[in-house]
Structures are given as C-alpha cells and as structure tokens.
Amino acid sequence: QFRRAVHSVQNHPGYRTLLNTLGPVENFFPRIPGLTPGSFHMWQRKHKDFEQHGWDMITYVPCFGSRTNFYVADADAIREITTHRHRFPKPIEQYRLLTYFGGNIVASEGDVWKRYRRITAPAFSERNNRLVWDETRLVMQDLFDNVWGDQREIDVGHCVDITLPIALYVIGAAGFGRRISWKADEVVPLGHACTFKDALHTVSTNVFYRLVIPDWFLNLGLTQNLRDIKTSFDELQSYMMEMIRARRQAEKKEERYDLFSSLLDANAGEGEPSLADSELIGNLFIFLLAGHETTAHTLCYAFGLLAMHQDEQERLYQHITSVLRDGRLPEYEDYNSLSYCQAVLYETLRLFPPVHSIPKSVAEDTSITITNANGQRTTVPMPKGSSISIHTPGLHYNPRHWPDPHRFAPARFLGEWPRDAFVPFSAGPRACLGRRFSETESVAALATLVLRYRVAVRADPRFAGETCDERWARVFASRPGVSMTPLGVPLVFTRR
Length: 496
Ligand code: HEM
Known about the structure:
Layout: H1 2-8, E1 14-17, H2 41-45, H3 48-53, E2 57-62, E3 69-72, H4 75-83, H5 110-120, H6 126-148, E4 153-156, H7 160-174, H8 196-212, H9 215-219, H10 224-249, H11 259-267, H12 277-308, H13 310-323, H14 339-351, E5 357-361, E6 366-371, E7 377-382, E8 387-391, H15 392-396, H16 435-452, E9 453-457, H17 468-475, E10 478-479, E11 485-486, E12 491-495
Parallel strand pairs: 1-2, 3-8
Antiparallel strand pairs: 2-3, 4-12, 5-8, 6-7, 9-12, 10-11
Helix pairs in contact: 6-7, 6-16, 7-8, 7-12, 8-10, 12-14, 12-16
Bound molecules: protoporphyrin IX containing FE.
C-alpha cells in the first residue's frame, strides 16, 4: 500500500514516515526522521524542508494510517488550489467540532456553504467597518484614560493581556452589538449565572477544551475551570437567544451595523427565515472563534516587532503624525492614508501567520505543474482522496517571493508586492470573510497606540548578555493553538 502510494505521486520528494501524524496528533511527537515530522513542524521548519527537497510542493506519504498529504508553499500552485473550489474542496470532516452551536460558514461546503456565505457576507459591510474603527478607538481611549490613567510607564508582563481584551471588546461591540468596558463591573443580570463579558471571555479563551471534552465529562464538573467553561457556553447561548428575542420583539427597529443585527435583519425579510436560530448562533460563534484570538495575537506580535525594531517604530510614528498633523486621533477616513500601519500589519502577518495549515482535499484525480528555484518544471499527480496543507510559513518565508525573508521589513508592502505569496487570510472564494474587519481593527489599534505611547521590550537583567537572535527567540516563543499563540511578550509602554 505504501509503495503504491509513493508510486501514485511519482515519488515526488517529501517526508516518508512510519506513522501518519497529521493533525492534532502530530503535536505529541518530537521530530524523528522516518517516524514523524514532529510537533509544530510547519512553524519550526518554515521553508527549510522545501529548500531541502528542491521543490515548493512536497509530499507526505506515511506507511501506516491513510492518505498522502501535499504541503504546498508555491504561490502559483496555491492560487490554483484556492481558486478551484470544486477540485479542491474543504475537508469539512475536520471541522465537525466547530458546529457546536449550529451549522456555520466555516464548517460547511457546497450548497450549504454557498447559502451561508450569501447571507452572512453582506454583514461585513462598509458601515460595519466604520463601526469596527469607531469601537476600536473607544476601546483604546478607555484603556488610556481609565486603565493606564496618568502612569508614564506601563509594564505589561505579556502583551496579550491587553490585546486579547481589545479584540474581545471590539468583537463584543461590532460583532455582537454589546459594548464592553475595561473597568466597569457589570452586575450579573437576573436569570444568568455570569455577565455577558465573562461568558464571551471564557468561551473565546477556552473554546478548544469545550470542543474536545465530551459533554458527559464536562457535566461531572470535576474542577472549577471545567464548571466555568460549561457555565460560560450555556450562558453565551442563553444571552444570544435573549438578544434574538429582544430584537424580534422591539417595536422600533434601530439602524445597527454590528454583525449580529445584520444577520437578524437578513433573516427578518418576507417568507421563511433564511437561517434557523441555531445557524444564526452557529455563525456568530464562528465569527468570535475565527476573529478573536487571530487578531489579538497578531496585534501582540506587531507590538513585539515594533518594540524589537525601534527604527521601524520611529518610522511608523513619523508616518502617523504626518497623516494626523494636528495631533488628533485617527478617523476611519484616514484608513487609506495610514499605509505604513497596514504595511506593519502585513509584515507581522507574513512573519507570524496565525493559521499555519489551510487544509483542502483532492476531489478527483488531477495534477499540478510547479517550477522550482532553478527554473525546472514538473507535473505532480494528485490522486483523488489525498489531502493538501497550504503551508503559510513555507510560503511566507520562501526567498523566491520574499528576499531576506526572516527580516522585519514593513516597507516591502509599500508599492508592488507578490500578492499570491501572502495568504494569512487564505485566498479565493473561501478566503477569510472577516479580513477587512480584522485589518480595520488592527490599523486603528496600532495607529492610536503608537501615536500616544512608545513601546519597548521590558529590560530584564537575567537576559543582559543575550544576542539579538536569542532575544528574538525568547520574546517570540510560541505554541500551537486555535491560532499560533505567543508565550510571553514582555513590553513597556511609555507615554510620548
Ligand atoms: C488576523 C486575523 C484573521 C486571520 C489571520 C484569519 C484567517 C482566516 C483563514 C486562514 C481562513 C480560512 C480558514 C479555512 O479555510 O479553514 C479564514 C476564514 C474565515 N474567517 Fe478569518 N481570519 C482573521 C480574522 C477574522 C475575523 C475578525 C472574522 C470575523 C469577525 C473572521 C471570519 C472568518 C470567516 C467567517 C471565515 C470563513 C469564510 C468561508 O469559509 O467562506 N476572520 N480566516
């Protein structure tokens, strides 16, 4: 069977291993050549394995355990795969856990996905983008005025301690239509066991556990943490049902542009509702899941990178002040002028793509032609039933597309740049629906923060003698998760 599998891909180079350790299982094994590529290998190895094998698409044929996988870091091949949705559909069996609250756009394919996309896409409108911007500004202002107050220097032990709440509060307001503040202690409403803020927070930070732990085990309530997780999921569902009922019964319809209101409006037209309540909640939950950590971690890496590169931070600051000449805070209208903010964001996403593997499957016997760095071409057969991983770190660190790929150089995103070689949000018809949501939020947060504060890595005498590379490795140490997770980015923010 193994020999047949190798033959079916014409022995195209790549991993030949004893076990199939694709998916979450691989995270339990270290790298053992011939046995398994090792945990977190897509991030650890980046473009190295492609370089070693001489092609930007390599195969993974395990001796035991099912199918062949193709790792792809070739920009043209990725464009072909993401464009042809029917030839390379999404393997939705891998997404089953995500249907916890109900069917949704991320965990579906075919006509069902088409229906979800048709109904949900209009919610990510220009008016929603403006709302995202305004709410991000409010959240940042609230942080500066009511949390950091008149402190000149703020020591943030791990930058996600501020970026996770920022992203949560923005999605609370612009996604769910409920404004949340940093300090205000909400009272638990009658009939609820926790506040909306706590439910949202616990759900979004523990989603992985809730999805993998079976109901019967969670119901045992063995630890406080497990009890909190269960309560928060139940409560979030109950809050969402309540919000649906309240909006349906409201006599006067308000003009609202948060995602939740837009989905409700789309559902309230003539005839049959287009989404069942479970699908409404399922899609909102997926927006929270897809948009919270990814954006929060990206902002964390961005502040870390600016702290490590003071020259780039100064360049960014000069750029922001040149756009906002009178020292005012940025408005949504400034978005396009804040091009260096977007360049910093894109360079962060290139260096730290939150999603490392975008899975696809091969629906029919087919092939893809690729060219390597020496200009040689080859056509690789892809048998029906194989799987594909679009390898974002491999692509983003591919020196054919990105000269000096390990260097933080935001300016590479000014002017022309290789768009097909940048896929943090995937590409084609199944590309991220929340891309503009996330970009708007990130640019607003970057611009407001860098305008008011200077950011530096916290000085620590324990690491006084470290080299630049050691410092980079320490500050940006990460682990796999729903999206790649920074382990500890210690920063100091100093008021300008
Ligand atoms: C830095 C931030 C983000 C990154 C890197 C990111 C990345 C991605 C990626 C790689 C996919 C494709 C996943 C797959 O094929 O399995 C995706 C899909 C999606 N994302 Fe995002 N995302 C981000 C933010 C957001 C936000 C803020 C939202 C919503 C508020 C969102 C909503 C979605 C949705 C609904 C899909 C499914 C689209 C479809 O299948 O038609 N994302 N995202």
